[in-house]
Amino acid sequence: MHEVYSIEEYLPPAIRDWADKKLRDLRVLLIENGILAPSKSDPDAESKALTDARNALKAAQDDLSNNENELKGHREDLDKDYGLDDVFRALKGQCVSKDSGEYTYELCWLDQTQQKPKKRGGNTGMGQFVRFDTITVDDELLPDGKGLGSGERVALRYENGQHCWNGPNRSTLVVLACAETDEIWKITEEEKCVYRMEVGTPAVCGAGRSSSGAPKDEL
Ligand code: MAN
Hints:
By secondary structure, the chain is α+β, with helices and mostly antiparallel strands. It is built from three helices and eight strands.
């Protein structure tokens, strides 16, 4: 506006006043329409249109970053091993528990295992899920079918749980066998802070697959 104002100097006073008023009116109009910043004296002031554009950009960037994070989560999920035929995908986020001694033990599929004191005190992490494994077991098959039986069984390894005083970080080996419902059958502490859970689940009842639970003739 400076250049325009200086033109006034060359005008006769009457026209100058008229031009001056017109310029003021124009300035007010531009401010009202968000094109011009409200105050020239404040160097940080910016027009409403610029503020709106800046806010829109910020909102779009936030959206983009949220979507990118979501995409990253989905990609990681797709890369994860959900076991034979992805059967464990459906179980993710679900937990089963069982009372044993002074604790309730909790197994959360592909997530973590925990020891929860029945009386007082906080929960103890017994490991985070790290990977699938196959182990060979040789147990007598119980009449109620609630046992591992013998042969190769799918196992889940949970490691890096809460550190054990004078011992390792807690870990859990979860050994699975075919059963009608998800159920923890037995919990043992094999060595100090090294736990083993024997668990029944339909997730390993795949027929004819040696690595996924009891073979058909054992059912
Ligand atoms: C707690 C529990 C036990 C474990 C001891 C080790 O009492 O986690 O299972 O053996 O800590 O100090």
